[in-house]
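Session log. Operator J.P. requested a structure for one protein chain; no other inputs attached. Running the standard single-chain path with token output.
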Amino acid sequence: VQLQASGGGLVQAGDSLRLSCATSGFTLDYYAIGWFRQAPGKEREGVACISSSDGMTYYADSVKNRFTISRDNAKRTFYLQMNSLKPEDTADYYCARRYFRACDGVEGTSYDLWGQGTLVTVSS
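Structure written below.
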């Protein structure tokens, strides 16, 4: 049972990047999946979440209209498409499994499985 995030890198402000979260070992229908990030010296914050029950998506205000969370059930992979990146988006990004089908916005409660981080660095 695991989540594996990938796709981070060094980009310039205004660029786009797509993160992937490969999953294995559990039934996707039972869990919502969220993306979180943690910048150096800052607390972890929720970025996006997608519910398995109805596909509803939720975003932090700071990324709304720039980031898109999606899923490919056949590949068991979740994505975070990040457009118009800003230096303040620089952080380690993590995907995580919530032990409910529905999201609670982008709140970080009730997550029981975390992937390793993938570093996104946005230069100005």
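Operator note: The chain has a mean pLDDT of 96.
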